[in-house]
Input
Amino acid sequence: MKINGKELAVEVDGQGPAVLLVHGLGGTSNFYQVQAQALAERFQVIRVDSAGAGRSELAEDISISAHADDLAVVLDALEVDSAAVVGHSMGTLVVRDLAARYPDKVSALALLGAVREPAEAGRQAQRDRAATLREKGTAAVAPGVVANALSETTRRDKPEVAAFVRELVMRQDPEGYARNCEALAAATDPGPIAAALPLLLVTGSDDKVGPPEASQELADAHGSATVEILPGVGHWTALEAAAPITNLLLKFL
Output
């Protein structure tokens, strides 16, 4: 689908109220495959590979706000007035930006592994990763993603999940991945989540990227959010805890 001058991979399945699923850094729309199949029985499920990720075209203006602008145009192109929106990792910043600047387009918000605005050390780490990607490719960063973002329990008991995460990372276009790392490095806090917007926050007890404290901070600021902490789960929540995430989303939606 041609969106804001670039070709983005967009998948639409099912019929009913719209649900927009937004992946994070290093991911693609396939991150949500298990959830998408279940949700499509009752909802119109929309998945987008963000610019520079997965099957979508590289773009010059990759940023948190640019991703949010793209999602707003995708909804318009599909004639969707409003959708429940789910975001993971860096995608939680994108969907929060979408909800802040296009409030009429977001009817509910679910954040998986919600991340904060990066501290300076985190910004530099993303810039360093971008440099590594350009110099050495995705093979140089994939082992670190698997080791640091998945829980020890997942790596031990679900090696197929570790293999899939490695494949997601390895299949990224290095330049697109690098530009998305730089987008995260430049990210700022999207601001408060409207108190009237239904909000679900889910993260893993072992998530070092989007730790439980980050979700709790957002919940406290919101005032009436639901927070779920999944034991033994790391940052790739929808893969590490596929069935629990599916059930929580179905209940929330």
User: Anything to note?
Assistant: The radius of gyration is 16 Å. The chain has a mean pLDDT of 97.
